Amino acid sequence: MDHVIEIKGLRKVYRDFWYRPKVIAIDRLDMEVKKGEIFGFLGPNGSGKTTALKLMLGLIFPTSGKIRILGKVPTDVRIKEQIGYMPEESYLYGFLNADETLDFYGKLNGIPRARRKERIEKVLDIVGLKHARKRRLSDYSKGMSRRISLAQVLLKDPDLVLLDEPTIGLDPVVSREVKDVILGLKSEGKTVVLSSHLLSEVQTVCDKIAILCEGKLIKEGNVDELLTVNGETEIVASGLKQEDISRIKDVISSSGGKFISSGHPKETLEGLFIKSIKEKQESKSN
Ligand SMILES: Nc1ncnc2c1ncn2[C@@H]1O[C@H](COP(=O)(O)OP(=O)(O)O)[C@@H](O)[C@H]1O
Ligand SMILES: [Mg+2]
Asked: Looking at ligand 1, which atom is closest to the CA of residue 88?
């Protein structure tokens, strides 16, 4: 099976108390997610991202349209085992520590004792919380809370993971760590669908994105392709002198091209920030 998610003509209208149509949250959405892809829903607040995820999970029902998820309808109990979902807000029991939390959810998911123990070790490792496993969750930072929620989702080793705003409210370093966990899932062959209102978040992890606006899909495709400026060529070189650049300009114009710009390539602000923090931390630990 190639497509993990297939959606056709999906529409969701929220109704008010008198059953009058109130908000068209999703409007004629068509999309597909392939196995092993990281797919990102991008859109401003209220554009329908959470609604789309809840429809895929069968938590709410479409007004019209079709959804196939892992080849079945979203309400089919046979696929529940294979799907992990992290809601926008996670509710954690502050008086439990990480080990107890994961054991509790493992039991809820019906994972047998021996397997539970093995999975808890594995997911704590994945999210990097082994050092804090005995600490109460009420003492966790926001980033740690998000990571334990992620661990909880991964406990049953799902093939498809749906994450609603996984990096919301996290600082760039923790956000990068969460993104690395997501990339790790991809390398294990899992399919990930996530939502975000932050452009840079999706750009760095997603293979494909769908931009939603007022419930409508306004752009969809491969991230690299969408961002490629066609008809222009970028050349990056080192060790050039000013006169070399003048000669290159001549070559460009004699080839019928047009010289547009030259300069030093820029690092992203996120890259610079994370590099600086890492350097500081490393110098402290040495
Ligand atoms: N239970 C609900 N009842 C009525 N309207 C809702 C409900 N849930 C969401 N909406 C509306 O649907 C639209 C999309 O919401 P949502 O899917 O939460 O967007 P996003 O996750 O992109 O911020 C918004 O206008 C929101 O107010
Ligand atoms: Mg939302």
From this structure: 21
Query: Which domain range does residue 274 map to?
Result: 242-279
Tokens of 46: 């209220």
Angstrom distances, CA of residue 136 to CA of 34, 99, 129, 142, 145: 38, 10, 12, 13, 11
How far apart are the C-alpha atoms of 192 and 189, rounded to whole Å? 10
What per-residue confidence (pLDDT) applies to 155?
A: 94
Residue 142 and residue 254 share a domain: no
Task: Name every protein residue with a CB atom under 6 angstroms from any ligand 1 atom.
Answer: 14, 22-23, 25, 43, 45-51
Same domain, 81 and 222: yes
State which of 12, 13, 15, 23 you would mutate to test the pocket of ligand 1, scoring each by most atoms of that ligand within 8 A of its C-beta: 23
Residues forming a β-bridge with 219: 211
pLDDT tens sequence across 229-254: 888 888 889 999 999 999 999 999 99
Number of domains within the chain: 2
| Distance between CA atoms of residues 160 and 36, nearest Å | 9
In this structure, which residue's CA is closest to atom 24 in ligand 1?
46
